[in-house]
Every structure is written in C-alpha cells, then in structure tokens.
Write a structure and sequence with these properties.
Layout lengths: L2 E5 L2 E3 L5 E8 L7 E7 L6 E6 L6 E3 L7 E6 L4 E6 L8 E8 L2 H5 L5 E2 L3 E5 L2
Parallel strand pairs: 2-11
Antiparallel strand pairs: 1-3, 3-8, 4-5, 4-9, 5-6, 7-8, 9-10, 9-11
Length: 123
C-alpha cells in the first residue's frame, strides 16, 4: 500500500527539540518533493517547510526559519523535520505530504498526505 507515515511527535517543554520522521511505503521518495504542514484546533492548515526531489532546495515559513530544518535520507526513504527552540505556538498536528512538483508542495496542494503526528509544546 502506498502511504506516508509520520512519527516522532510528543510533549516537549518550550525551548526543547523534537525530530519528526516521514517514512514512505510503496513508493520511492527520491522522486518526490516533500512538505511539512501543521494544523492546530480551530485554525487553518499552514505550510511549515518543504524540500525538493531534485536539487534539495528548501522552503521555510517565516515562523520557523532558523529553528526548523528539513532533510531527507533517500537510503531510508524518509524525510525529517528537526524542530529546535520549540514554542507553545508550534503546538499542532504535523503532516507530511508529497508531490512530484516542488511548486505544488510550496503552494500547499500536494497530492499525497500522511496521517499526522501530534506535537505539544507546554510547560
């Protein structure tokens, strides 16, 4: 079955770190651009970060620049989101999503989506 599975979420104190993983099954992430998105209760989904399949170009939203880092490990068919200096406003369900076109991912409309993993930043 073709799917994306997020993991690594949990409860962390403000200023702490988490690393989210997005593992692909049934297809090779090497050929796909990947985006991380998040949605908090009562709020619209927002883009967090994206990485291209070709040259490794990356995108970060202004709210996470300098704190989050997206990367991929093609050998493990996995994309990561390293989140440092976490803030309470980072609390949300985080989703990874894939598309063949980087521009589509940056635009927030990738075709394939994972189930999401909860990140809670609280004291």
């Amino acid at each position: 079955q073709v799917q994306l599975v997020e993991s690594g979420g949990g409860l962390v104190q403000p200023g702490g770190s988490l690393r989210l993983s997005c593992a692909a099954s049934g297809f090779n992430l090497r050929y796909y651009s990947i985006g991380w998105f998040r949605q908090a209760p009562g709020k619209e989904r927002e883009g967090v970060s994206c990485i291209s399949s070709s040259d490794g170009s990356t995108y970060y939203s202004d709210s996470v620049k300098g704190r989050f880092t997206i990367s991929r490990d093609n050998a493990k068919n996995t994309v990561y989101l390293q989140m440092n200096s976490l803030k309470p406003e980072d609390t949300a369900v985080y989703y990874c999503a894939a598309d063949l076109l980087f521009a589509v991912v940056v635009g927030g409309n990738p075709i394939w989506w994972g189930q999401g993993t909860q990140v809670t930043v609280s004291s």
